[in-house]
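>> Question from a student workshop board

For tomorrow's exercise we were told to take the sequence and the ligand below, predict the bound structure, and bring the output to class. My setup keeps failing. Could a helper post the expected result so I can at least see what it should look like? The ligand is flavin-adenine dinucleotide.
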Amino acid sequence: MVKERFDVAVIGGGIAGASVAAELSKDRRVLLLEMENQPGYHTTGRSAAVFAAVYGPSPIRALTRASRAFFANAPEAYFESTLFRSRPIMMICRKEQEPVLDRTIAQVGVMTPVERINEAAIRKLNPMVKTGYASAAMLDMSGEDIDVSSLHQGYLRQFRAFGGDLRCNASVLGLVRRDKGWQLETEAGEFTADTIVNAAGAWAEHIGHLARAEPIGLVPKRRTAAIVEGPNELPPDVLTSMPITIDIEENFYLKPDAGRLLISPADETPSPACDAQPEEMDIALCVERIENAFDLRVQRIESKWAGLRSFVADKCPVVGYSSVAPSFFWLAGQGGYGIQTAPALARLAASQVLRKPMPSDIAAEGIDLSEIDPSRLIGRG
Ligand SMILES: Cc1cc2nc3c(=O)[nH]c(=O)nc-3n(C[C@H](O)[C@H](O)[C@H](O)COP(=O)(O)OP(=O)(O)OC[C@H]3O[C@@H](n4cnc5c(N)ncnc54)[C@H](O)[C@@H]3O)c2cc1C
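>> Workshop helper replied:
Here is what the output should look like for this input. Compare the format with yours to find the bug.
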């Protein structure tokens, strides 16, 4: 039987795979393989949808800054007009955490304007913060809520418009190197491709193993979130416009979400790659931390979920060709930042797949390829 042949096969239909496939489809014949019956079922469909240029290690912050223009001005032909909605970021601290706050401000304030505010200002922005709980905060007014579904669907629309071929229910089962290309055995049949892009999220290490690529030491970590009702006495407009309020050491966060509150204990529990589910213990921990910091009695959990944020040791993404498996490209380890960095990461990864120079606007943010190349991880896997 003649196998369908593609220039590039992208494995994984989450935001990473969909966005890089959309970029690559402008120049190449691209196959996008997703094991579920629809793309976005795993981590991409479970995020808190925040854009915070002050969040994550330096390469992440650079990629986030480089993504802002796309979010603000995505092509209307594919993306619904408003991917962004203003959501200030407020990282609060207790008195004893102030050294952490000051270090963070010194680090991130160089590239993103932030303000150090006092307790009165904190409580004005979020009246739910308990009196006497927080002594100071870092305020970033440039934060945004992201419409993740529109972003993801927009990339898939763009991918199809450029002739891309999406196959769902197409779990990749085997990868064999043959005649300078790859043979892919999947649940939906066999395909061949010159190049493979591994965007399989929590499963990326497994896909690397199938290709006999180098191990990268990827660890999926479970994070839990829940939706609860806000306090009755809080006026709806205050509830809607409040900043996302995050503990400076990321022990919890609380964010307005369509008239309700999204709360999380910011847990990072190592997990095998799987369909992650919330654990009762993490929900209980979440309620305890939130009730400790905010004037809120959680009466009822309206909904809850968990998702896997996958990290390598330095918490930076893994973007580049394998030095072991030929024409096998890593696009993994986006951790807790894969939505806000997706536009820049997709363009950067596509340029690297095609062995072209990095787009100049991304380079201008100070991205150093050696900080994201898989070769930095050799010996750590
Ligand atoms: C609670 C929570 C809050 C978060 N909040 C934010 C936030 O506010 N901002 C932000 O930027 N990020 C956030 N993140 C992180 C963000 O969601 C992830 O970084 C991002 O979704 C990762 O995208 P991905 O495409 O790599 O992974 P996924 O969306 O998991 O996609 C990988 C895909 O690969 C497929 N796949 C796996 N194995 C195979 C195979 N063998 N064959 C075919 N397909 C396969 C899977 O089915 C899956 O669809 C959050 C995550 C969580 C869990």
